[in-house]
Amino acid sequence: MRIIERYLLGTIVTIFLSALTIFCFLYVLIDLASNLDEFIRQKVSIEILIQYYLSFLPIIIAQTSPLACLIACLLTFSHANSNNEIIVLRSGGLSFWRIAKPAIFFGLLVSILMFWVNERFVPQATSMSQSIEDEYLILEADAIKKKQVIDDLTFYGLKNRLFYIDKFDPGDFSLHGITIIGQDENQQIIEKVVALNGKWTGIAWKFYRLQITNFDIPGDTSTESVRYYDNKLMDIKETPQDFLRQRLDVDSMNIKQLHQYIKRFARSGAQKALNNLNVDLHQKIAFPFSNLVILLVGLPLALMTSRRKALTFTSLGIAIGVGFIFYVLNAVGLAFGKGGLLPPALSAWMTPGICLLVSFYLIKTKF
Fold first, then answer.
1. Structural contact between residues 264 and 164, judged by C-beta atoms closer than 8 angstroms
2. Which end of the chain is more exposed for a tag (fewer CB within 10 A), N or C?
3. Any bridge partners for residue 232, and if so which?
4. Nearest 5°: CA angle at 95, between 73 and 89?
């Protein structure tokens, strides 16, 4: 590696780590300031707060690393540009790809690292932060949120049953759009329950307008027997509180766990839930590579600027603008995917694909 490449790479790493530190500090500061009254009222100890915010660090790093990576690279090249170092490199016959080589290498390295962090640490961090919040930090605002209607509730229950509920209202303990899949030890379907509505009576669940399908031979639809009921008390041991505790949190699962969950859920017939889970699966794969993708968009914009003055502020503006557009487009793509307007894979990879096309166009036309 050339001296100039080592110099640029070292500067990028330093700024990247500094940006991540600032992002983590700002998150903790803002969240602590907004909830300080509740923490004092509930007498939350310093040790619990430290443990709570430390559990959030992998999540913050994974979410902010693309912007931190972009800021680090743009500030590094803006400084080199202001010192006329980029002009010297261009005069020496170096192409855009040779000049940007340290940044691209770093972006690829961070993408791989964030993929590992998302798989290894983020699921555990999500579960830990949620358990601490449930045990010590249930704020008044959070208690109100827990009473709001929950859409697309999915979880594994007792007796090897898979639950899918379109809507669950914790306020009156009512269910709407119910699908329950009973499985044997080999994950073969032995029972399927479909009901229009359900209500917690205080002792048991009562379902209305329901159909119960039993399979004499597990998984064999030719041996099924179907029974219909206007209403029926169900042999379901889970209480409404169990529904809240056991609901699926995709953020607490890695790619392998989510893929296995989707495979077990594939024959449930709940296509909307399956579609949403597939969108989340592809998003877990695609998002870490946003570190490299938005970097490729920002670099040509930074190197194209002809003004030497205020290049630092220009680079920060480019980073914020590119990051904002990327996150908005990504959110729109995921919404289209979960709404059924786009296939799951396309919804997750649409924004990275668009950004790559834009970056290649800028590089080809301007360099």
1. no
2. N
3. 207
4. 70
* 8 Å CB contact between 167 and 273: no
Domain ranges of the chain: 3-128+283-366, 149-248
CB 348 within 8 A of CB 76: no
Integer Cα distance of 167 and 337 in angstroms: 20
CATH of domain 149-248: 2.60.450
SS3 151: strand
Mapped onto helix, strand or coil, the DSSP state of residue 147 is: coil
In the block, which residue shows the tokens 């790619």? 255
342 vs 348: CA distance, rounded Å: 9
Residue 190 CB-half CA count within 13 A: 9
317 confidence band (pLDDT: 50, 70, 90): confident
Tokens at residue 318, please? 């480019």
CA 179, CA 184: separation in Å to the nearest integer? 17
- 89-123: string of b/e by CB count within 10 Å (b at 16+)? beeeeeebeebbbbbbbbbeebbeebbebbeebbb
The token pair at 75 is: 């500030």
DSSP state of 184: -
CA angle 263, 268, 270 (to 5 degrees): 105
Bridge partners of 205? 200, 234
- Helices 46-82 & 101-120 angle (0-180, nearest 10): 170
Each residue's pLDDT tens digit, 269-288: 567 778 888 999 999 999 99
The distance of Cα 278 from the centroid of its chain, to the nearest Å, equals: 12
- Tell me the pLDDT tens digit for each residue of 179-226: 888 887 777 788 889 999 999 998 899 999 999 998 877 756 667 788
